[in-house]
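Review form for a predicted model. The reviewer records the input and the model, then writes brief findings.
Reviewer: anonymous (R2)
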Amino acid sequence: MSQIDPKTQTELEAAAFRRLTKHLRERPQVHNIDLMNLAGFCRNCLSNWLKDAADERGLNLDKETLRTHVYGMPYEEWKQQHQKPASDDQLKAFAQSPAGQHKA
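Model under review:
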């Protein structure tokens, strides 16, 4: 991507992010713990990364606003509608994964 200007690169990256969040909103059956176990990130990570980016720019955006942006609805509402308790196998896989061993 070195042949394009930084503004265009940012626009392309932003478009990819919007498409990723849309893709995840359309697939609530894909649970965060499964994303964490397979990919090392989940919807909450995306909202945390947005928060980090906002903080770096001195923007006062709260975590719940950013979670709502990523989930397409308030996080608690999404959890009630879509999140099931993690199975023992999911929890075991998470504990053994690099994501589960990472202490933020």
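Findings: The longest helix spans residues 6-25.
Further findings: The chain is about 70% helix and 0% strand.
Recommendation: see findings above.
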